[in-house]
Design a protein that fits this description.
DUF5787; 29% helix; 3 domains; 3-stranded antiparallel sheet
Amino acid sequence: MSVTSEFAFELRVCQWAERAWEPTDESTVLVARQLGTKYRRWDTVIIECDPDGLRERAEFGAEAFDSDLLHVLQHAPSDWTYYRDALPDPGYPWRYVRESIHEAADRDALDTRKRSNRIEIRRKRPYPDWLRRIVAIENKPDLTASAARDLAPQLERDVALSLADEVWVATAATDERVEPILLADLPAAAGVLTVDPESGTAEALWQPRSLSVDDPGTRILDRPDDDHSAARFEYVEQDWKRERRLALAERAYERGWRAYADTMRPDCRHFQLRADETGAYPYCAAKECVPTAAECRGACPSYEPEPPVWRSMGWPLDGGPGKEIKRLLARRRRRQRPGLSE
């Protein structure tokens, strides 16, 4: 795959991580892209999971649970109990809890009944403790001086908040004796990864420090450029971090990194899914490159809907090659989630 954009580089990093990432213990690895919180979004996210817990998580289905649903599932009792007695005070109105209870019941993750005009709940199965570690990677294939200046404050915020167990920055390998990224003024706690886009291999040049995810974090709100003004920050409690980490892992479980076709136009006659020794990737035959989501859209001058005849010559009745590409990517995503049915 020819790396012509940060998106193409991002896919290469995800392919490498899914294939070659070595967790600190016998964990199962999930890889996702473009995930984070309201304050920060990471390019690549690696989730290290307990293998047994991950298989138990599959019993709840492939769809993610948000933090409100997790609040219900994690505290649902084994016997019928009035929901206000079973669940800790959420810190927001109980009517939203009732909405989450009904949604969990609709997804067959919770039993509900009404007794004396009171809603009682009972868990169908315990929600497993499947998340072990989160590794966040910021991708900068072409690390110019200005990119390094912009990157350092982002990594400092990641380290201070310590929402992820490790923080890395990945960049394309060069032929220079000393990689330019090692000369950048980056936090010592962040790891450095160089990726060879052609071979799909990577090398760790600097190992990161394990961050204190179980302790309170610090959210840096403002760090002035000059040395005379004080930075503004706020402390973040452990419970907030714990909830956000699990909600982040849930979204990674659902989305993975192959969902790019959902924001592209695989129904274009020029859209292809090509493969090399490292994995499959999208390809635009009209522009002869790996397209980004901003390029691969209906407004693209080269966009041409796939001919209707393609949908009647060997393709399923419910779609043509574009639909089959989406199904193929969905099947590959599900294979990384043991216990999910095809």
